[in-house]
Amino acid sequence: MLVDTHCHLDAAEFDGDRAVVAEAATRAGVGTIIVPAIERANFGAVASVCRDYHGCFAAYGIHPMYVDRAMAADLDALLETVLREHPVAVGEIGLDRFVEPRDDPRQEFYFEAQLKIARDASLPVLLHVRRAIDPILKQLRRCPVPGGIAHAFNGSRQQADEFIKLGFKLGFGGAMTFPRASRIRELAATLPLDAIVLETDAPDIPPEWRVGARNTPDQLPRIAQTLADLRGIAVQEVAEATTANAAAVLPGLARIH
At what angle do helices 72-85 and 104-121 cross, to 10 degrees? Predict the structure, then answer.
């Protein structure tokens, strides 16, 4: 069975057929799905999805692209939710240096505050790192947490090695399936296999064969096959390794066994 370490199954794009999407993922061999929150307003939706669908596990956090409408009280709500719901991670949190306009100090304030929550709760984090890897690594060194996942990793080998040193796994998904994504594909082919986890980020970041369409978690087996092809190994080896890697970095998944 495969683990989709990043799938927004609570998103509005799935409101019309969420049960069908979840069942298709299970039939495809995706036995576990991590559902990260993006703001306080969807904590309840994430919790509901994870109660209703077997194999779904929650993470709670405030996404850097949603901090413009966050309030300090949302951090209190996050802490309360973490203590009550016992999620597998704090996330999706981090920094985004791509979307304009943006408020970098505000992003950094919420990121640092959420790292402290994760640290104090002894929870790993799911990181949004788009064009912000170096400042994120700087914050992680200031506030060490029990590892986590650098979601949709697209940095350098040196940056990848720094994340690995800090106890992180690197998330690879649809972007890796594009032949022109040479840097991502090189990393996927050459990084230690025990540093890699798989993800879809559904409904976003569709793979090459789904350009322009909604992404869904049942695409993970073909993404796994892409990784296997890049590394020249059997897809079963990829499945076993990435599942073990997810379990290692997200100890809360042990509840499924």
Answer: 30
